[in-house]
Write a structure and sequence with these properties.
α1 (27-37) crosses α9 (253-268) and α1 crosses α10. The strands form two sheets. Strands 1, 2, 3, 4, 5, 6 and 7 form a seven-stranded mixed sheet that branches. Strands 10-9-8-11-12-13 form a six-stranded parallel sheet, sandwiched between helices. The protein has two domains: 2-113 and 255-285, 3-Layer(aba) Sandwich (Rossmann fold); 115-252, NAD(P)-binding Rossmann-like Domain (Rossmann fold). It is of the alpha/beta class and 294 residues long. The chain has helices spanning 27-37, 56-66, 90-95, 113-126, 141-152, 165-177, 190-194, 238-245, 253-268, 275-285; strands spanning 2-3, 6-7, 12-18, 41-47, 70-73, 100-104, 107-111, 134-137, 157-161, 183-187, 199-202, 226-229, 249-251. The protein has ten helices and 13 strands. Helix content is 36%, strand content 19%.
């Protein structure tokens, strides 16, 4: 018995991650552990186009043709993948960013579990409390997903900052076109935009391994209540350390990593998970070097 991309005779599942700077990714561990819960052997490959002397499009086409069940897509390819997949969810189409691909017999299908993962991470930490006005720095693939997640959480005021102002403008237009009922403003200065913000979000690579620093100064955090960092390599970034010192409520990017992975697994395998057990196993498996992000 077999289904597309899954050999049920020997119970194997072939998955992969396409992205740059992913050597420390814990995504392979998460999906292997998820497979073990279901008696599946998971092969999960890290695929870096430059290391393979191939373009992103060539890597994706190769995965499509040689029998992968699905892929995770990470920085900087979440927007680049969109033209090559069928996206049925109108909200994901409006985001213009995909982080999960399923190779279905009808063709590649695109999903966004960063969006649902962020919502789950926020609610896990803050329950149903309102987000308040939010400053979000970085409007690329993960930023687009988080912005739509904020809309789903009922946010009515989001301030966008990006070194590439055109990207912030593009996200603002996408939110407006989706009619999410959110006031969206674009700012050039982080400190100014942070004034009066209740939530502070980093959706840039700043703070990850190889990109030291923080996008927000400790002084600019005064008056905020909570922060979220999409970076999870390392788990405790400078941004989160500064926020902790200020007494702010911290939502780690590891939570987004966990939930987006759980949601992606449900797309790849449609098999149940004991999330509590998976969380413990994943944290224990990552103990020597701490969890690293997708």
């Amino acid at each position: 018995m077999a289904r597309f991309g899954v050999n049920m005779d020997d119970k194997t599942l072939h998955l992969g991650l396409i992205g740059d700077n992913i050597a420390a990714s814990r995504a392979p561990v998460l999906h292997r552990l998820a497979g073990e819960q279901n008696g599946l052997s998971v092969r999960y490959d890290r695929l870096v186009p430059s290391d393979m002397a191939m373009s992103f499009e060539q890597v994706f086409e190769q995965c499509r043709t040689i029998g992968y069940r699905g892929l995770n897509i990470t920085y900087p390819y979440k927007e680049r993948i969109v033209p090559f997949v069928r996206v049925d969810d109108p909200l994901v189409r409006a985001m213009g960013a995909v982080n999960t691909v399923l190779f279905d017999p009808s063709g590649p299908m695109g999903f966004n579990t960063d969006y649902s993962g962020f919502v789950a991470a926020y609610q896990g930490a803050r329950g149903q409390r309102a987000t308040g006005p939010v400053l979000m720095i970085g409007t690329g693939g993960v930023g687009r997903a988080v912005a739509f997640g904020l809309a789903a959480l009922g946010s009515t005021d989001i301030r966008l900052v990006d070194r590439d102002r055109s990207k912030a403008e593009g996200l603002a237009q996408a939110l407006k076109a989706a009619d999410v009922g959110m006031e969206v403003t674009i700012w050039d200065d982080v400190a100014t935009a942070a004034q009066g913000a209740v939530g502070l979000i980093n959706c840039t690579p700043v703070g990850m391994v190889g990109h030291d620093g923080s996008p927000v100064s400790p002084e600019a955090m005064i008056g905020a209540e909570w922060v979220f960092d999409a970076v999870y390599t390392p788990v405790m970034t400078q941004f989160l350390s500064d926020a902790t010192a200020q007494g702010l409520e911290v939502i780690s990017g590891w939570e987004l990593f966990f939930f987006q992975g759980v949601h992606a697994w449900s797309i790849f395998a449609d098999a149940p998970l004991d999330q509590s057990e998976l969380r413990v196993q994943l944290q224990n498996a990552a103990a020597p070097d701490r969890p690293a992000g997708q």
